[in-house]
Amino acid sequence: GKPEDPEIIASLLAASDVLGTGWFGAVAAQAGPGKTIAVVGDGAVGLSAVLAAKALGAEKVIVFSRHEDRAALAREFGADVVIAERGDEGAAKVKELTGGYGAHGVVEAVGNQTSMMQAIASCRPGGHLGYVGVAHGVSLPGDQLFFAEIHMLGGPAPVRRFLPDLIDRILKREINPGKVFTLRLPLEEAPEAYKAMDERRAIKVLLEP
Length: 209
Description:
The protein is α/β, with parallel strands linked by helices. Helix content is 44%, strand content 21%. The strands form 2 sheets. The protein has a 6-stranded parallel sheet, with helices on both faces. A two-stranded parallel ribbon has the order 7-8.
């Protein structure tokens, strides 16, 4: 693709932010061939993590979502299974789909108590949890963490580490992360853009000059 294509521009814009974050989540969850990866969170970062897990060769990708538009985009990005249940109920579904073990890797892309505990509960012993949701009031119970026996890696994404690879994949049209932008608005309507995202009318908004 040509770098000036609107579709390519949207994807490059995604690469600098949500895609880099979702990609780090998937890498931290050790997404790769033969792996089942679960993603907690169906916002732009969670959806990017689905795309990343698939691009990194994951065999099966499970996403938690109860919004039809987001679930549809998750499927387009390569999700094999969409689970509407949350918390322990949601984690139980993941175990059911993985012979009782849990996913090999889980990406936590929300950052609240429920999502973090759901991510830990969805991961098998010895598995990997990549957490990229900015934590809001998360406190982890030591005993549950101790007996979960999982690897945990997360925090702010080292986006620059992945950018050359991501830009290359976008220009070759191997991935189209720009699809997370479900609304385009002029720059001066930035407040409306935040409102649309807050009210779940848009996944991510692209502001145009």
